[in-house]
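Q: I'm writing up a methods section and want to include an example of the input and output format. Could you take the sequence below and give the corresponding predicted structure tokens, formatted cleanly so I can copy it straight into the document?
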Amino acid sequence: MFPGVEESIWTWDDEAGQYYRHMFYRHEPDLNLTSPAVLKEIENIILFWLKLGVSGFRLDAASHLTTQAGNGDENKGLWILEHMRRLIEKHNPDAILLGEVDVEVEAYQDYFGNNDRLNLVLNFWLNKYFYVSLARKKRPSAAQRGEENDRPARFMLFCQLAAQSRRAGSGGHQPERQTVCPRYLRP
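A: Here is the clean output for your methods example:
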């Protein structure tokens, strides 16, 4: 996932005497989302924060989460979003479930479902072109604005406005990163 930072998604653990998988960094091991014990612990964590009064949750890498929950099949793993949404709404109907979804815009529908999965999607596509257009002081092309795509109007999209090196530096081509990063990111 991060060439030059992580050479593999597998790392040896001396204590366990086996390899473990990490889609991202080695200090972030993947969870076995098909394990009832792991799912129960996720539920406990959600309930803990809801009882403290949080008004929503942001799922980092939701598209990878669903792939993992579906044993490698993203569509078969969408059940986990429905499960989390039901749990959250049962305890706080006003709380939201926002997902960081790094997929083609046409696949967003899968993450909203029938209003039973995510409430909001963090839109990587929009985020990238928003910062590029600000940095260049020029509006993006029609293709970049998505005018070629037919998106249902009921989709709620969220554009992350905090310039973070991971977000602004990911996606797009090298010239876009070179335009955005120096202008918006602190050294």
